[in-house]
Amino acid sequence: MNRRVDMDWMLKDLAESVPQTRHVVVLSSDGLCMARHATDQDTADRIAAIGSGLQSLSVAIAAEFEHSSGRMRMVVIEVDGGFMYLMAAGAGAHLAVLADEGVDAGLVGQCMRDLVARIGAHLTSPPRHDGSSV
């Protein structure tokens, strides 16, 4: 996939500063991998598709809350073996992190928030028209 900006290097700090991090992926709301670090393309594409589904489900959940804006902030899923974190990272973009069991959950969340705050403008996926970015 051609990316507008090579963001992979931006994810390196998060991946290397949180022990037990396996994968770091930036995805568009519709499930396309925009950037990745320490993750092969096939795995990144699967994580992006999963993240898109989780983001969609979280919007449906938000609709059940009376005073909700309907936006997803963060989703955390714990399974045998580890965690998946998904955070809104800009208009139409999300940051996903997969980490092993025993990871410091607070550190993951803080590093994700810091990354989004530092480079949020770069973590934006404009709407596509006719299958291409504008």
TrEMBL record:
Residues 8-99 form the Roadblock/LAMTOR2 domain. SUPFAM superfamilies: Roadblock/LC7 domain. It comes from the Bacteria. Pfam families: Robl_LC7 (PF03259). PANTHER family: SERINE PROTEASE INHIBITOR RV3364C. This is Roadblock/LC7 domain-containing protein.
